[in-house]
Amino acid sequence: MPKDSPPEELPVPHMAGGEFRELAARAAAWVDDYLSGVEAHPVQHARTPGQTEAMLPVAPPEMPEGLDRIFEELDRVVAPALTNWQHPMFFGYFPCNTSHPAILAELVIAGLGQQGMLWSTSPACTEVETRMLDWMGRAIGLPAAFLSDSACGGGCIQGTASESALVALVAARDRALRANPETDPRSLGVYTSTQAHSSIAKAAMVAGIARHAHDEKGVRLVPVDERCQMDPGALGAMLDADLAAGITPVMLSLTLGTTASTAVDPIDACTRIWREKVGDPWVHVDAAHSGATLVCPEYRWQAKGIELTDSFCFNPHKWLLTTFDCDLFWTRDREGLVRSLSITPEYLRNEATDSGAVTDYRDWQIPLGRRFRALKLWFVMRHYGLEGLRNHIRNHCAQAEWLESKIDAHPTLRAAAERTSNLVCFDHASGEAATRAMLAALNDRRDVFLTHAVLPAAEGGSRFVIRVAIGALTTEPRHIEALWRLIERAAESVG
Ligand code: PLP
After folding, report:
1. Neighbours of 241 (CB within 10 A)
2. pLDDT at position 240, please?
3. Which residue of 91, 219, 375, 420 is most buried, as measured by CB atoms within 10 A?
């Protein structure tokens, strides 16, 4: 029997407006204190595995507690367990920028609570994103064919460069199998250089093209030259041999800014050879880190030949002041991409989609749902302007150039790779043991953080190098001076 009155509401302690404003101001102040005071803390935590988890109760709170306790725990439990990526002396991996306008955008994004899987579920989420991708595409000098107002191009935000590699590969596989339906899917091979990021091999694993991380048939690793760039001649020779052996090239992934040393594959020469030998199969460019430099015209030489490729991505969440997660992915073949990823269950059908007049970004990515991440780009680009973004990049590159000049002039240190932008790689002339000892001496201090890479050595074999990636929000010339003094001291200490 239906009841006469609707059910009584149970108490749920939603936050009232006044309380929210007060706590939002407190959270903003906490973040501001963190960022403005980050330099006073070590870059690296001193926690041991399990220590942080053990500081939190095993059981969740049964009754509402309010957020007061959270702020106390942020200071006591969380802050000491952080690696401080925004610290001015953080030079590890690649940067992972935050910035004040991006933080504000994150608040607005969360507040709006949009789910932009379809145009109809949030026209703003979709159309602001389309426009932001065009803005950034123009800002980095992408050819018009990648922009949304071209006949076949367009872009969207992916979570990471790894996801971009995967969607490019899914589109590439679809293109290859449509062109030759008789192709044995087990014959497919993805081409990339020995210096490419592991995400390319991982995409091949996820797509079922590689059976494991070292599957040499599914992932064809093209040798690099002495500058760690893909060797176009080696690519051509490998394609000749592979075609004769029955391998089907499905995608070429080129790197603009390798993880180890920011080497730049010759996009133009490699893509021309690819087109000459295999024709239409997909060419992707992974510019995860170094793509940010393209806001400055003087770095655009790296993208020569980009107009010949099919897709391109870079991460503003690395070095362009936009909080994680924000990878930008553009393609010249949006129809091919959408065809390979589109599936429409009945419950998602709607008039706008059926009309064909709108973009549904769910068809451009692996997940269905999506956040309103374009707001981050909007806030960042409006706040900094392209001029501000260029200065951010140029400041770090100038700092890297200065550091490199110091290393070049030092009697026992050797620059170990060509510097293309903000990354300086070097080693100790006495060899690997001394370089490792230097790195350990520097990192043991915890007030600076650096990571390493292993590069191919000119004389054969490999070369262990220290990497200095300059790009944190807070890094200024005085920090690079301080770093140099620490490097000098570490070099002396190992002899
Ligand atoms: N590609 C390159 C060249 C990278 O350097 C990195 C990470 O540093 C990646 C891809 C992976 O990035 P993401 O974490 O966005 O997947």
Report:
1. 11
2. 98
3. 91
